[in-house]
Amino acid sequence: MDQGTGADIVGAPGIAGARVTIIVSALGAGGTEHVVSLVASHWARLGCAVTVITLEAPASEPYYNLDPRVAIRRLDVPVQKASKLQAAWLVIRRLHRLRAVIRNSRPDFVLSFLTRTNVLTLLATRGLRLPVIVSERNNPAVQPFGPLWKWLQLRLYPRAFTLVTMTKGALDYFAPEIRRHGRVIPNAINLPAGWEDRRGNNVLTAVGRLTRQKGFDLLLEAFARITDRHPDWKLVIWGEGEARTELEAQRDALGLRDRV
After folding, report:
1. What whole-number distance in Å separates Cα of residue 185 and Cα of residue 196?
2. To which CATH superfamily is domain 6-184 assigned?
């Protein structure tokens, strides 16, 4: 793995033999899930006892490959649409099961990913005297979650051992008492076996969910500014989401239909 691996969080030299518990809502396709697979497998290869806890149903399968030494514990309380009363009951069930499985895994430290899961993890570990590292993977200024989750985030994050963000801008969003224990760790890069440099096709590629949070509108604006200077380049965006129609209209308005 390249610079920016999860080992940076605690320092690789003393981690061999540690018991690590990683918490994420699911192990499907996505950037966060990919990072979890990389970090969990990396630590397992270093000799750690790694447990990954998800909210998924028991029959769920991970999208990305994990080292076979990584133990996966599924709580069978997946994220789903529900009424306010049902949602409250689901949160209580998640907290109860999450706390039990965390205690059973006997971790030296806990690493949690994404806001709602981070909040649940900090609540579930209260009184357990465990260092909890929480990781934000998105732009916190445009996170689409409700006022209650926001309030809990601001109240609970100061109790975390460390807050990890991908950029300094994301870390600067948080209050000083949270930022004081923060670390900026960019995503790791893992090149597949047999990888070959195939540059030269003059294609710029972007991958992600087609939503305002990902900033593809800014990418289109930036690409439009350089098209005259680089007429042989094209932009390909891979993804799906609610902003597809809006982005296609923006592309056409910028005169990029044949270039994007």
Report:
1. 26
2. Glycogen Phosphorylase B; (3.40.50.2000)
User: Burial level of 248, CB count in 10 A (0-12/13-18/19+)?
Assistant: middle
The pTM for the full model equals 0.81
116 sits in which H/E element? helix 115-124
> What is the Cα–Cα distance from 39 to 103, expressed in whole angstroms?
21
Residue 246 tokens, joined: 């809006």
Could you say which DSSP state residue 22 is in?
Answer: E
Integer Cα distance of 54 and 51 in angstroms: 10
Task: Tell me the per-residue pLDDT of 50-68, one tens digit each, with 9 for 90 and over.
Answer: 999 999 999 999 999 999 9
Question: Rg for the chain (alpha carbons), in Å?
Answer: 20
* pLDDT tens by residue, 107-163: 999 999 999 999 999 999 999 999 999 999 988 887 777 888 889 999 999 999 999
Mention every residue, 6+ apart, whose C-beta is less than 8 A from residue 108: 18, 19, 20, 131
Give domain limits for the chain.
6-184, 203-253
Instruction: Kindly state the tokens that stand for 198.
Output: 């195939």
Residue-by-residue DSSP string for 206-234: EES--SGGGTHHHHHHHHHHHTTT-TT-E
